[in-house]
Amino acid sequence: MIIDCYPSAFAQWDSPAGYRSKEEKMRVIQRELSTHHQPAWRVRDRVQVDNSTLVDPVSGELRNVEWTRDRGQNVWVYEGETYAKQYFPPMLHNLECPTELMIAEMDYAGVDAGIFHTSPHKGLYSFQNEFQRDAVRRHPDRFMRLIMVDAHAIPRDPEKAAREVEDEVGAGGRVGLQFMPRYYYQPAVETDEGNNEPWDDGAMRPFWQAVASMNIPVFFTLIGRGGVGADVYGQSFHETYMEEQRVLIRWMDRYPDVTVVITHGLPWRSYLQGDRIRFPDEIWKIFDYPQCHMELMLTIQMGAIWEYPWKEAEPTIQECVERIGANRLMWGSDWPMVGRYCTYRQVVDQYRVHCSFLTDAQREEIMGGTAARVMGLK
Description:
With 378 residues, the protein is an alpha/beta fold. The chain has helices at residues 22-34, 99-109, 125-138, 158-170, 181-185, 205-212, 238-254, 299-302, 314-324, 344-352, 360-374, and strands at 3-4, 40-42, 47-49, 66-70, 73-78, 81-85, 113-116, 143-147, 175-179, 218-220, 260-262, 272-273, 276-277, 292-296, 329-331.
């Protein structure tokens, strides 16, 4: 069985999707695009520009822009000029990915099942939970899902947040919890107040104790806690990322029986030196904990730099297998976003066809065996 640990399905990107207004949702999207590595350009002549039309690079304040569409894609108007960024592949001309589209891609590429992830820029957490719950209900043999709660609000009422998770678990289907520290510190909605204390204990303890009792895996999206305008792909990001790893290590010390998955894998792009990703030894210490698993997702970050079949990534994949073990690695696509660079079948074939150093047993683990165990499939 081939399981994609990171497919997506979502409503139209420029719809409110649970937020109080379309304008509030577009501010969340603007923050996402303002630090993203995909190039932006001026629409009238396709001249490449930086992200300063979206965010003030000094203060981190979002610019006042007007959002509209051009040829089916989101664009923004700033000081009379129209700009664009290809965050989604051009094929998503209606800025949505229905569940049925994801299934069609999976069928064509020979993928049996997938685990839906989520993020605030796809919709408010309650909206996304309902959207994905419905998808799993309609296609229980094809999808599992990750629950999301409003991370910044958990310390204000941890019991309420725990009940939300419990209700989602009770709704049925194979589920896990996705926790994104970035939005614990810096909420997606600008008017909300974030937290300064680490998320592994303190006011968070009742929530985590309740989650630990639910017998579900927890997927952690570690991208550091840098400033709102921080370059999450640059070297300045390294220390904040390592600090988040250290917080997760403390968390695993407290909850040794909870299965943990690090989403997206390691910060591949920010450790690129020449044509090779080179990690410090410290970054591997978190995998001394046998409960800790990792998603292998290089293409979404490196696809803008390397070409299929991404041979330059193979030494790093091999290092992950040697240091972590194939039985704790899970292949993921981040489709349809990775369609900026390749087809869905090519993302599958990176591991199904290439990486000749992998044994058949290792391929089976990476491409489905590990994910099946994490999600409790027999």
